[in-house]
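Recap from last week: sequence in, structure out.
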Amino acid sequence: MSQIKRNIITIDPNFDDYNTGPTIQEHRGVPLHIKNTPIFFRTQLEPLGIWSLWQDYGYRIDNNFAQTLTSETPYLVEEHYLPIAEVPGQEHILQSLKEWDLSRKRDPKITISDICFLGMEEMLALADGKTPNTDFDLFVRGICYNPEDYGKEELIHLDITHDAKPIGEIPIYLSLDIDSLIWNTHRLWLLGSLEIHMVPYMQRKPPIEVHNHTYVKILKPQTDIQQANNEYTTYEQFKTQSIPHIHFGYSGHINVWIAFPRMIHRQHDSPYWATQIPFHVQDRWFTFIVQPSIRKIYGRGSKEYVSHSSKEYMAKARGRTETRFVDHKKLLELQDEIHQHIQEDCNENLDIFGSFFFILEARGIKLWTKDREHLSDDIFDVMRQVMPTLDLEYMSHAESGECVLDLGISASPEASEPMVGLWNLTHVDASFAKAGTNTPRLFNIETLSDYGGLSAEFPNDRAAITHMRYRMAYDLVFEIVRGHLKFPENSDAYLANGSYHARIKQLIDHYKYAKTSSYRVRDELRASIKAVKSLVLIAKEKMEMFLDFGTVIWISSKTYFEFWIRRIEQLKYLQMQIAQQRPRNACNLSLLVMHLIKTVFTTPQPLDSHTHFILHDLNFHPSSQRFGIFFIPELHWETLAVDLMEDDNDAVLQFVTNQPGKRKERQKDPLEDSRHTSEYPLGTHPSWDEIIEILDSNPTLITHSHMSTPFWEDHQSEMDIMAIQLMAKWTRQYTFSMNEIFLKDEINYPVLNNWDDIMQFWSIQGIPKLVHVPSFNAHKAYWKGLPPGPQQLAFADCFHSFFPPLTVKFQEGSYWISYLTNGYIKDYHEILKSYTEQVVLNFQDSLKAAFDLLECLPDRAPDPRSQAWKYNDNKGGPCFTVNARTYKIRGIGPKKARNPETRPKAVATHMHIHSLLLADSQQITVPEAVKYIKGQQRNTKKQAKWSTRMKNYREPPPRQKKVLIIEQDATVPHRTPESNLSISEEVEETNDTEIEADDEYDMGNDNFNLELSNSDDSISD
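Predicted C-alpha cells:
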C-alpha cells in the first residue's frame, strides 16, 4: 500500500461559505412537529411547515467533494477484473446432498436413494401431455414414478447440467460496450448545447430513485466552537441518491440533475433521507434564480421569449416540460449568474440553494457503443463520435469531479441451434469474493438454486485505490419480458377469470417466440474512466478465460423455454382447481402459485408479508437448494391441502380478494384528471352515472375500438381455429332467437366467415346496422371504484352463459332444446365429449380470450337457461352490454354532486324590506338606513357579549307591591294583620314602589323616535 500515490487536491478556503451557516447546536432539539394543547385527552401533532423543514442545515462542500477514488492511478485493476476462484466439484455437492435430512418430524425418513436426478429434457420426455396428473406431479410437485415399480414415488432433483452443452463445442462471440455514464461535478463543462428546465419537477418520485452506486463527501455542520475558531469539520460520505435534487437540463439521452447539499435532512418521522423537494421550494429556485439568470445571459433580441414569470412558464408548459436553449459557452455564464444571485440575495432566503453541484447521467447507451468497429476500434473514440456533447478528457480529471462508466461485456453463443446462457452462481460468487466485493445480492432465476445473477459494491477503501465501484453479472434472458411485463392481479388469480387467463396466455406466448433466439450472459463493471481505459485492452481476453472455467452453462433454447412453458401451464391448471374447489387455504395457495409464476420471469422484490410468511413456512430457500428448484411435494391433489400451510384468515382473504372494508374511504388516484380530452372524453375517472348516460346517448364517444384485434399470438393454433368457427356459428344462430321486428333485415340473417366479421358484428358500430333502436348498458365489472352492490361477470367468464356445460338441463318446451339438438350448443357439447380434459381446457381458454375482446354482448342473466334477450322500455329495443375494458377511462370516480340551479326568491330580503321602511318613515336615503341598521346590529352583538360573571349573576326576585290604605284623618298606612313591617319600612317600600312604577312607565314607552335634527349623529353612532 505504500506504493500507492494519492491524488491530493489542494483545498480552496474560498470555495464555499463555511463560517456563516447554522451550527449543530442550532438544529439540535428542534422537534419535527408541534404539540398542541391536549383537548379531551388527545394531543394533536402538527407537522412543521415546508420552510421549517427545507432550510439550511449547515452542510457544505469542498472543491474535492466528488473525489472518492483517491489514488492517482487505478491499482491492481487486472487482478480485480473477472478473477477466477476455485470451488468444490460436483462430487462434493453430491456428498453434501447425502448428508441432508430431507424428512420432517413424524414422517418417514427420505434417503438419497429416494431422489431422482433429472434434467429439463428428461422431464419433458417423461411428460406425455395427455394425462394432466402426470405433468402436474412432474412440474409442480416434483415427483416421478419408478418405471420398474410404478407405485413407488421418487422426488426429483432438477439438475440442468444434464442439458448443458460442452463449452468447447460452442463458439462464443464477445461484445464490448459502455452502458452508462455518471459524472458528479461542481462546474458543468460540455462541448454542446443544453436545454435548461424552466418549471418545477412534477413527478411523484425524485429523478434518481434508486442508488446509482456513486458517492460524494459532504462537510458536516460546524459546532459553535468550530465556527468561532474558524475550524474545519469532518467529512461524511453520502450516496448521491440521498441528497435533495431536481432536474436542471438535458441534451438528447443525457440528463443533468442539480443537487442541494445544504438541505440534507431526514423525512418526517422516518429514517430515510428526504430527496423529493416540494413544489414551493422548487418554485423559489426557478422564480428567483434560474429564470432571472436566463434573462441575464440572453441577448436583447430574445427578451420577449424569456421575460416571463413563473406562472407564465407553467401556463406555457401545460403539464409538460418547458425549456430554454443554452449553448456551451453561455452555460458557463449561466452558472456564474446562479452563484451571483445566491450570494447577493438578502430577502428571499436563497442561501438554501448554495453549495449545489451537478449530476450528469447517460443511461442505456450500450447500443450507441456496441459493434461500432466501422467507426473506430477504440471504444472511447466511438463515444466521442456518437456523444459529441461530452468532453471525456476534461471529465477524467479529478479537479473536474468524478466520472464513472459501466464497462459491459456480453458473451453470445454462435451455435447451430439457439442457446440460452446462465451464470453459475457458485463460480461467479467465488469470483466476486476474490475481487474483494461486499456480500453479493443473489437473483436466482426461475427459483433455480445455483443459477441466475448477482451484484455487489466494492468496499469504499478498496474502491478508492482500484477505482472500481460496482459489479453486476446477469442473464440476458430477462430481456424477453423487460419493460412490458404484466402479471395477473391476485384477485384475478383467486377467481381464475378471463383477465387471469389472458395475462397467463401472454406470458406463455413470450416464451413460445423465444425458442428461436439465443440469449447471452453479461457482466458489467462501474469504474472510473482511467480504470476502464486500462481494462478495455484486456477485457475480452479475461472474459474468455472466465468462461472457460465453467462459469456459464449453455442450454438449448427449445428445451429451456419448453420446460418453463410446461411448468406455467401446470401452475395455471392448479390455480383453476383452486378456483373451482375453494379449499380452506385457497388464498394462501393462490399467493404461492402467483409467486412461482412470477419467479419464472423475474425475481419479485419486495414480497408482501403474506407471501413472505408462506415461503418461510414451506422452507422455500432450503427446499430450492435441496431439489435444484422449488417443488411442492407436500401438496395433496385431492384436497389441495399443503403440509405446514395454514388456513386462510381474514387478513389474507382481504388482501387477495381486494374487497374494500365497510368504512374504507376512497383514495384519490394520483393520475386522476378531470379534463376532457380525446383520449379521455369524460376525464380519467368519471362517475358511474356519467358512464351510464353517455352509453345511452353516444356510446362511441367513450369506447375504444378493438376491430381486427386477434386473441391469439403470431399464428392460430388448432384450438383457435375451432373457437372461431364455433363463435361464427353461435353469432349467426343466436340472432335467430331475436324477435324479427327488431331486425332491419328480417329475411337475410348475417353470415360470418372469419374473426373480423365476428368483431364487427358485436361492435357498437355494427349492432345499429342490424338492429332497430338497440339499448347499450354499462358493464359493472373490471374497474376499481364501482358503486356498491353485486358486480357482473367479465366478458371472458360470460361464455358459460352462451356455451352451457354438459351438466345443464333445459326445461321441456324451451327454445334452448332446439339449439341443443340442431344448433351450436350441440357442436360445443360434441367437442367437450370428444377431447381430453387438457385439450378442452385449452379450447375453453381460446373461447375466453375471444369473448374478452368482444365489444358488446346480449344483456342477459348468467344462467344459461335464462331468456336470450332483454327489452328496454325506454328505447323500445333489445339490450346490449358494452365491455367495460373498452371504456376510455382509468377508473370510476365518486358520484358528482348535482348543484341545482339558483333561482331568485319571490320575497325580498329582510334587510331590504327593513331599510326601505326605515327610509320611508324617517325621510332618509336607503344607504343611510342600511348603515344605521348594521350599526344597530353591531351594538346588539356587543351587548350580547357579556362577561361570564354578568351572565351568571342571579337577579333578585321582584319585590311585592303593597297597597296603601289611607284613612281620612290618618297619616300612616293601615297595618294589616299579615304585615310585620314597621312604619318606616312601609314608607320606604312605598317610595321604592313609586320609583319602580316611574321606571316601568319610562321603559314601556319603547316606541322608535328619531329626531331629524339628530339623524346624522344617530346614524354615525
